[in-house]
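Justification of resources, computational component.

The compute hours requested in this renewal are based largely on the per-chain cost of generating structure records like the one below. Each record pairs the submitted sequence with a full structure-token output. That output is archived, and it is also reused by downstream analysis tasks.
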Amino acid sequence: MTEDKRIEIALFRFSIISSLMHLDEHQDKNQIIKQLSKKKYEIPNSKKTKISSKTILKYFKIYQTDGFEGLKPKRRNDINNVRSIPKDILEKLIELKKENPLRSANGVITLIKLQDKYKDIKIARRTLSRIFKNLGLNNKNKKPKKIYRRFEMDNINDLWEVDIMDGLFIKPLKKKTYLFAFIDDHSRLIPHAQFYFDEKLPRLEDCFKKAIMKRGKPKAIYADNGKIFISNHLKRICAELGIKLLNHLPYSPQSKAKIERYFYRVQTQFLIEAEGANVTTLEQLNSFFQSWLEVCYHRTQHCTTRQTPLDRFLEGMKEIKIRKIESLEEITEIFFYRQKRKVFANTGLVTLFQNHYKVNDISLLGQNVEVRYDPFDLSRIFVYDKNGCFKLISYPHSLKDKHDPNIPEENSHKESEIKASSNEFFARLKQKELEINKKESGFIDYTKIIKGVEKNDK
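The structure output for this chain reads:
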């Protein structure tokens, strides 16, 4: 079994037990496990559709002991052979389905077995149903409209909503920006939000990492079904951090009302002012935005909660214990990107983009390895063998790409100073932000309580 398949199975197992991760005293773990065992699942690498209570409990205990790595299947030497439907029979099945799209998979199987030459064939209904689904041949039955009710999580960091909004067009650079933002469902506080030049996955992960470093780890995040929000890389990050990833139904904007309302405020209160502020760089835009966020948004009373987002979040901190990361190294490693590479036997080098790295391990010469790296810093890579075991840290033999070339560099300009002449509104905000920072001395920044950071700051 390949490492990718093992990760896929581990992610599936984590999705089952994630409901057990953060139970309160009023929730019965055994009852929830019983409910989970009654559901039907599409289990990777298996024909089964259900999981027993005993197995679910076993997965939960393994995760508590060994983390995400323990959920991966143990390596085995034999390879499972999967049956496939002969091409001529499959074409006939598809033809019958297209002839009448209302036919179910069982109906199509019954029809083809009425023909003498196909009467003895064995076709699994679920296999055929999956094939029809992949080909877009299944019917989408209309569902009755749902009634939506307001909801709010009981505590801070129970749930963060995340989404992307079109931002300002920076005329001197002729580039459009996009705002990535996370919002805490209970307090409406923004753990982190930032403008970027594209909507790619590394930007989401950069914003997510900064949010966790500031406000701790949430129990769950809630996103739509966009490509970057359902990526396996994001799923793995959430699994390793013990965070449940929830995706709402397509075409249901009601599901993300809180962050949509926040974006409306950004558009009507911030962007209108920013458009007239003669913004020339992305750094300047983000500097203006952070000032507005901390001074205006976080300290303005919310119409529903009747509290400011900051006051409600700080009040919530008295009720629960913030789930902090243990170290900067821990969160950095979790967010690493991974690629398969081969170590050249004659040179002992491994390539990543246009860079060459020296692998000082004879046992890896000519072998396939996994390279893990920070896409924003290619000054070093982490080399793992084909079984996923860490071997060494490798440094460049030749370095041409300092960062992933697929991710455009954004910090090409020094941060612009914000002077009174640039815009009176943002100049006042910046001054107010500086005054607040002096009074609070970083009170709302959780990076100060990460192990080792205080020592490095001294």
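The domain at 160-316 is CATH 3.30.420.10 (Nucleotidyltransferase; domain 5). DSSP finds 14 helices and twelve strands in the chain.
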